[in-house]
Amino acid sequence: MPIHKVAIIGAGTMGASIAVAVASGGYDVFLQDISTEALEAGLKKIDKMFQSLVRKGLAEEESQRRRERICTVTEYSRIADVDLVIEAVLEKIDVKTAVFRELDQLCKPETLLATNTSSLSITEIAASTNRPDKVIGLHFFNPAHLMKLVEVVPGLETSEQTCERTLEFGRSLDKLAVRVDECASFLVNRLLGRYMGESLWTLQDGLATIEEIDKAVCEYVMPIGPLALRDMNGADIGLAVAKFNFQEYGERFRPAPLLEQMVEHNWLGQKTGKGFYTYDQDTGKRTVPNEVIHELCSGASNAKASPFTVQRLFIPMINEAFLALQERVCAPEDLDPALMAALGMRRGPLALAEEIGLAACLKETEKMFEIHGERFRPAPLLKRYVRARRQSITGNKERQLAGSV
After folding, report:
1. Which of 24, 116, 189, 319 does the annotation list as catalytic?
2. I need a surface site. Which of 81, 94, 153, 339 has the fewest CB within 10 A?
3. Do 171 and 128 belong together in one domain?
4. Does the annotation count 306 as an active-site position?
């Protein structure tokens, strides 16, 4: 059944941005929130987004056409006959399951129910409904109307038809729609978490300064350094995500104590004017690093610790990529494009692995495992590739190998 009408639940920043993305794809959009005040605030955000698109070259007439496709509603009864619902409410499982229970009662039986959660269990959300086969994760990246990736995440009971329809919908928005099997933090944020975490441990251990880490990463492969990115997203959010991943995956995701200390000091980043960097209160522009942070760092925790190299930050991401392939979280050929689309990487982690050399990646991982323990336990699939003397990762043989572990 084709999708024509789409409802978005939640008119916050993410919901508003998704509304712009969906309307730009040619769909009629019903933006729902609990109050007219929330909807008015959401429409103001939407108008600013369209104004920005016009400044970037979108024709004014086309902007108006897209804007006219969006209407607002407060009652769920107004969206009972839509073809797809995208939930974008608070990232709490009890809030989301309450929304899905109500949608399940009101929407027509064939309506697909999607959640924009970035990490919560699709299966658990689906279990709150009587249509788990029609519930799916549709994870947009912020800002949704600009970012090219969308992760399509089926739960345990999601039907293949629902997955295919959702992938087609994502592609119709001019997105790279990648199927990602359900796991904590899905694909991109899972791999990002290992890289971000290692940047904090590197700083914590006194192996490099704030500026050295960010500068090296930008010169190597990223558009923004990990510490500047943490300031942008907020240390409090970063700590919550890190704790969640630590709970789900164990020791390799243990947060560096430095992050918790920053939250305790209210050094949350741009929103508080100080994080890893300090920010001008009037312009919000970054000024100088927060040098007090270095006083919180313990210095190298082990005498065998290697000197800082930028590859050190990406070895955990590469290792996690092999763990993800081993678990068949995504197709090997989708992994690098997904990371590049979502993070702006100039080369993805698998390309970096081939560039460094798989044997060299394994050797460095094993060396760090001896020093730091579980944070660097090598992925079994990486060891198998090296033993087989494989140099390339993507392709049919590699996909079969990933599935056989």
Report:
1. 189
2. 94
3. yes
4. no
Q: Is 4 a catalytic residue?
A: no
> What is the pLDDT tens value at each position of the chain, 405 positions in all?
789 999 999 999 999 999 999 999 999 999 999 999 999 999 999 999 999 999 999 999 999 999 999 999 999 999 999 999 999 999 999 999 999 999 999 999 999 999 999 989 999 999 999 999 999 999 999 999 999 999 999 999 999 999 999 999 999 999 999 999 999 999 999 999 999 999 999 999 999 999 999 999 999 999 999 999 999 999 999 999 999 999 999 999 999 999 999 999 999 999 999 999 999 888 878 888 988 898 888 665 554 567 899 999 999 999 999 999 999 999 999 999 999 999 999 999 999 999 999 999 999 999 999 999 999 999 999 999 999 999 888 654 444 444 444
Of the residues 151, 320, 364, 398, only one is catalytic, namely: 151
Check 87, 139, 245, 398 and give the catalytic one.
139
388: CATH: 1.10.1040.50
CA atoms within 13 A on the CB side of 7: 28
> Is the pTM value of this prediction over 0.90?
yes
Q: Which two tokens stand for residue 55?
A: 């400044």
Question: Which of 135, 162, 179 finishes a domain?
Answer: 179
From the list 17, 63, 116, 118, the catalytic residue is 118
Do 22 and 125 lie in a common domain? yes
139: annotated active-site residue: yes
